[in-house]
Amino acid sequence: MTVANRLLPWQQSNWEHLYSYIVQKRIPQALLITGNKGLGKQQLANQFAVALLCKTPQTNGTACGHCSSCLLVNADTHPDFIQIQPEELGKGIGIGQIRSLITRLTLKPQFETQRVVIVNPAEKMNNSAANAFLKCLEEPTERTSIVLITEKPAKLPATIISRCQKLAVATPDKEVVVKWLEEVTQNTSFILQKEDLYRNISLAQGAPLLALEYANEQTLSLRNECFEAWMAIAKQLKSPIIIAEDWHKLPASPLLFWITSWVIDTIKCYYQPIVKNLYNPDLNEQLQELSQRLELKGIYTLYDLLLLDRQRLDTQINKQLLFEEILIQWQELNRSR
Question: Domain with 191 in it: what CATH number?
């Protein structure tokens, strides 16, 4: 990890809150950072960690970047900076990792500053790991701060949440995100028009880092292709089975959000909303057309299925069968119009 002294523009108030802990010498033994994906929670936690580890912090509390502690952080060899995360993509945080952490925490910090543990994503601890992790919170060790990061706090046991100080990272104002995206993309190989910036921000639910990722990967084009397939099924031009076979190869979570957003916007269009308040304002014309010819009760039934499927994504459910069920119900809804 490289020590960076630049705070993301929407995190200033969050940093002031964290810095107040340092100034008042009331550093929390356990801190829970929450917020949607793409808001920079990990970066904020890292900033806090290196500030606690730094020997000569700057006047605003951020790390200097050149003391011996900062150099060790840069080299990923600082003995008092511990990061716990899934060992493999798509896996959870197991009890073995937590037991190893507990063993390390029985020893004193090697430096005179703080020791920091970051667990991200915290909700990935399985039940056994979470139960073992409680020991770290119930029996805090000397000069040790544990930072938990999650976008799904409801999935954490109440016993863990109750033992943490809380910091919520809010979604910033859209204009702040637009300005930031314009700055970070101005020297890149692609230049986005303002209209495309807004579309990517809407697609990312206002999360700046996710909007940037979508812009880099041209995710908007993929969403448009998926929406074309969605409309083709509505017009009985394509088979739900064939589309589901293609879709299960795509990242399931964002795809399921797109589908849900199309359904929500279709419901909104029944009530003539302000276009900019839609999740997909650029698809307004087609969504309006859907709302005028589909039965509202049937759309709500489909919406209930989508809410259930969002919970199922964290299980071992077959993703192709999940999308088949959604698309077949969507096809039947359009047949019965």
Answer: 1.10.8
Amino acid at 146: I
Q: What is the pLDDT of residue 141?
A: 85
Q: What is this structure's pTM?
A: 0.86
For residue 154, the tally of other CB atoms under 10 A from its CB is 9
Query: Looking at residue 2, what is its pLDDT?
Result: 59
pLDDT at 243: 96
Tell me, letter by letter, the H, E, C secondary structure of 214-274.
Answer: HHHCCHHHHHHHHHHHHHHHHCCCCCHHHHHHHHCCCCHHHHHHHHHHHHHHHHHHCCCCC
Please identify, among 151, 168, 185, the residue that sits at the C-terminal boundary of a domain.
Answer: 168
C-alpha to C-alpha distance for 306 and 322, rounded to whole angstroms: 10
Q: Are 150 and 207 within one domain?
A: no
- 102 is written with which tokens? 């507990």
Q: Supply the pLDDT for residue 202.
A: 86
Cα-based distances in Å from 209 to 175, 200, 260, 285: 14, 11, 21, 29
Low-confidence ranges of the chain (pLDDT < 70): 1-5, 187-192, 336-337
Nearest by Cα to 64 from 74, 77, 75, 54: 54
The count of domains in the chain is 3
Phi, psi (degrees; rounded to nearest 5) at 331: -65, -45
Torsion on CA atoms 41, 5, 66, 101, rounded to nearest 10: -10
Work out the angle between the directed axes of helices 208-216 and 194-203 (0-180°, nearest 10): 120
The verdict on 135 and 69 lying in the same domain is yes
Q: Please tell me whether residues 50 and 162 are part of one structural domain.
A: yes
How high is the pLDDT of residue 35? 95
Chain segment 193-206, per-residue pLDDT in tens: 778 888 888 888 89
Number of C-beta neighbours around residue 214 at 10 A: 21
For the chain, the maximum distance between any two Cα atoms, rounded to a whole number of angstroms, is 71
**Phi, psi (rounded to 5 degrees) for 170:** -90, 155
Q: For 94-128, what is each residue's pLDDT tens digit?
A: 999 999 999 999 889 998 889 999 999 999 999 99
